[in-house]
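INFO  loader      accepted 1 record
INFO  loader      residues=363
INFO  predictor   begin
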Amino acid sequence: MAQNDVTRIIEIIKRCFPKDATEISDALELLNLALDGLMSSTNKSIAEFHKNKEFDKGMELWEFSKTVSTIQETINEYTSLLNIDAEADDDEIDEELDEIDEQKTIPNYSDYIVDSSIPHTLYEDFTHKKVVAFSFNNNRYTAKDWKDLLLQTCDLLAEIDATKFSEFIDDPVMKGRKVSYFSRKYVDRKNEKMKNIDIYVWTNLSANSIRNLIRKLLRKFDIKLTDYYVYLRADYTPLHKSDKANDEYNPDQRENHDETRIGKYVRQTLRELSNHQYRFTDKEISEMQSKQWSKEVLGIDYPLLKKYKDNEDISAQIKDGIYGRYWKEIFEFNGMKFLATSQWYERHREPFARWISRLQNEK
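INFO  predictor   done
INFO  writer      dumping tokens
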């Protein structure tokens, strides 16, 4: 099959069947990890043949390893082409809700609690699932979220061999499409420093992307994937059934799928109002900074707007308590600067749309 045909097929899969594209990409990555193991075994055998002066056998395996390497390069190319949202979107990088906040904001929270004693492998899909712990080398470690799980795993591996871990900075396998997963430089809200070595780990990743990165790390340390388990505390998949339905191919909607996510929808709408210098009444401005109004009208748990202060660090202003609850983007209404809450779920779409429609009808 010609390369152009392969590229065209992949583009159709990504455009029409993004969920399948992700699953195929994951499967190819697992295949490549298995081939990494095969290459490692092959290299050991080649060294043994050369040691015993069995050069013909060594050359045969050398040619074999070159073929496997070519196959891996092709798989890497296809995996890269299929990759969708490997890095989390800017609208999704706020701190994950902790368990207490989830109890307050998730309807029927107890319905989604799962048995945290059940081990899950790195072959599973962790979309919409919340982690509570992981086990490694027969030890169990508590994790507050997926980022914490990744950082702890990196720290544990660095304790085994810090020199090997440092090599990941320049390892092409440890680079995404746009970012390096390990570096010496800090990027605000994107990566975090490891505990005992001067390396920053890219944590702005989805749960499945973190899973994939851990797979690569374990393979680099010659650790079996089955020696690592994840434990969950909640599974919110049922809350996203509508999202799954939206992922079915719809030629009229697919091109704009990413743009219609609730966070982006709210942010873009507020941005348009700000850019067009929409003027609210004094009462409306006051209400939008009220937790009660925001709950009653929009169903959200934080005030829609909070005043931005020029003389204060914005990183502190986006927080409510210790967690980031507001976007860093500044919106201007009635000659004043505001931050808007980033805490939106799909159930908030309809009340927000009704409110916007009412504003438009009043003008």
